[in-house]
User: Which sequence fits this backbone?
């Protein structure tokens, strides 16, 4: 089983022959012909609709000619703001094929966010979807004196041209525009604006070379999945925002370059149904999703019989032993065999039943959450990357798995540690710098090495382990360095706690903001006859959360333990600006919002 070695070598060599991302796209879409490529469920439709490689190629070609007709010149920037859908990929590649630079923007951006990106990038055009997304983006474009054209996927009340009408006008153009021959691998392909956990987002300049190098190393990783024998049969479920470098490279360009299929998820609220419909074989997501799924599974387990609960817990326990290479007795091996059918197969079925790998990236994955899924037979590979590296740097290999690490470096990547342990990266995957920020570029890339700001170490098998984040480290009054992400990860592992933020820089001990888990809180309120509106002020409920914190503290060292906490009624969300679009907490903004309450937890 698996793809022959000679075929693997041939497929990997193609990445070196492609002169640009649009050159890769034109080649692969032509090869794909009438085979299925993209799957999307338009609003109101119950079934996924299929788009072939040939259909998508035709639309990309017509739109690229339309953009040139609209006056787009080589090197000019075009902002792309939309939810995940086929038109995103069509527009993204068409912009580059016309010689332009694609500037992805989050669908959750406010008008102010879009104004910053349009102004900072000097964008001359905007392509957007519809509804609220288009409303915010078009409002920003309307007040810009540099935007020359606007295009929308869906009809709206503003002056934007309709993408379908542009494509229809230029559908006779069945050959790529001449601009394709002038694009070099070293040319700028995209400006990816970082999601900004701190200050205003800055544009990361990624060349065609960087993204193609990342796709090549991703294919080399996927080849380690022995179950794969035909890449055309592999399906990705695109869930993370395509404006994020992780999803754009790994969930869009990589499947296209490898000849795989892509299904677009409808959103978090319909993810469970989409998993059953799409039956993905590979899925990329951030730890927050796995943490949420972990909490939901455990909460749902409470409604099952005691026997089912015991079988489930036993499956996790024995699965964990196997993943951690601990010996199983003969009786445990027999028991584990039957648990595959009684428990693991049912859990795998909830993910579509065909998953070969779940890949986690974008933030540190709690070890217990990772091992929970691995123990249930869902292969979860933790990786590591940064937007500045296009973005994947390392990832666990199926045959060399250790979820306490982020795996060995990928093909074509160079890694080393600075004297203080900071992780340094080199290779074709590196960004060209930050757009119009030479000083910050010089601080980040020195002598060809990307200074990641993360602290790490290598194990005996050269797998990278992230130990700290330089900028996020809390230094307490005693001079101890504490990683807040580790403490927050332990806290949120408890079923009663959904979100947490740790505070304590230059303080004698740590305190925390805690957002209780909604399902847990509602169930507790109902069982105890307490109104949800006054739950956070209820002494008995506070005691329940206090006990959860005490349990977490038992897993932490003395300097990491939480002494006092505040319960917050409002979750950290993308909408209120306290969560990035990739579901990482905006620590600085949360601290500013709750600073007075946090400071009050310390004796004066």
Assistant:
């Amino acid at each position: 089983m698996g793809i022959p070695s000679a075929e693997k070598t041939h497929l990997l060599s193609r990445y070196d022959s492609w002169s640009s991302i649009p050159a890769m796209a034109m080649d692969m879409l032509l090869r794909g012909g009438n085979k299925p490529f993209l799957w999307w469920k338009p609003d109101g439709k119950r079934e996924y609709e299929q788009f072939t490689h040939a259909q998508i190629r035709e639309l990309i070609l017509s739109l690229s000619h339309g953009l040139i007709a609209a006056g787009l010149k080589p090197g000019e920037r075009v902002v792309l703001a939309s939810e995940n859908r086929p038109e995103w990929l069509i527009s993204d590649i068409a912009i580059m094929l016309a010689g332009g630079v694609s500037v992805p923007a989050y669908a959750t951006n406010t008008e102010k966010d879009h104004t910053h990106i349009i102004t900072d990038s000097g964008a001359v055009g905007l392509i957007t979807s519809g509804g609220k997304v288009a409303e915010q983006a078009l409002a920003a474009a309307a007040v810009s004196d540099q935007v020359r054209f606007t295009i929308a996927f869906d009809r709206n009340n503003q002056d934007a041209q309709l993408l379908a009408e542009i494509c229809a006008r230029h559908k006779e153009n069945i050959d790529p525009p001449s601009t394709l021959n002038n694009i070099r691998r070293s040319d700028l392909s995209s400006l990816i604006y970082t999601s900004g956990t701190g200050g205003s987002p800055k544009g990361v300049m990624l060349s065609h070379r960087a993204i193609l190098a990342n796709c090549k190393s991703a294919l080399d990783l996927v080849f380690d999945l022995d179950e794969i024998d035909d890449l055309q049969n592999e399906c990705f479920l695109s869930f993370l925002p395509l404006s994020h470098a992780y999803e754009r490279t790994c969930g869009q360009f990589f499947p296209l370059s490898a000849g795989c299929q892509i299904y677009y998820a409808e959103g978090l609220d319909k993810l469970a149904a989409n998993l059953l419909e799409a039956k993905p074989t590979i899925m990329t997501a951030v730890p927050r999703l796995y943490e949420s799924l972990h909490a939901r599974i455990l909460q749902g387990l409470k409604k099952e019989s005691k026997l089912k609960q015991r079988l489930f817990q036993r499956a996790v326990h024995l699965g964990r032993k196997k993943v951690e290479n601990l010996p199983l007795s003969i009786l445990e091996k027999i028991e584990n065999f039957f648990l595959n059918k009684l428990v693991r197969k049912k859990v795998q079925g909830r993910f579509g039943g065909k998953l070969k790998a779940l890949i986690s990236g974008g933030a540190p994955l709690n070890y217990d959450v990772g091992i929970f899924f691995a123990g249930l037979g869902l292969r979860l590979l933790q990786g590591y990357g940064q937007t500045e590296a296009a973005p994947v740097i390392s990832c666990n290999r199926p045959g060399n798995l250790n979820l306490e690490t982020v795996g060995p470096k990928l093909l074509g990547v160079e890694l080393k540690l600075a004297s203080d342990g900071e992780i340094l990266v080199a290779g074709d995957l590196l960004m060209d710098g930050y757009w119009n920020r030479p000083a910050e570029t010089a601080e980040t890339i020195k002598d060809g090495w990307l200074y990641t700001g993360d602290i790490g170490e290598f194990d005996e098998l050269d797998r990278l382990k992230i130990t700290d984040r330089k900028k996020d480290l809390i230094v307490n009054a005693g001079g101890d360095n504490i990683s807040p992400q580790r403490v927050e990860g332990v806290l949120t592992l408890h079923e009663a706690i959904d979100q947490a933020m740790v505070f304590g820089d230059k303080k004698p001990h740590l305190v925390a903001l805690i957002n209780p888990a909604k399902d847990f809180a509602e169930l507790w309120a109902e069982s105890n006859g307490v109104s949800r509106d006054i739950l956070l002020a209820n002494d008995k409920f506070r005691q329940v959360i206090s006990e959860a914190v005490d349990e977490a503290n038992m897993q932490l060292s003395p300097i990491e333990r939480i002494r006092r906490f505040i319960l917050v009624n409002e979750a950290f969300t993308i909408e209120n600006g306290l969560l990035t679009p990739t579901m990482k907490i905006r620590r600085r903004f949360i601290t500013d919002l709750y600073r007075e309450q946090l400071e009050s937890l310390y004796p004066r």
The longest helix spans residues 330-349. Residues 239 and 265 are 5 Å apart (CA to CA). The chain has 19 helices and 26 strands.
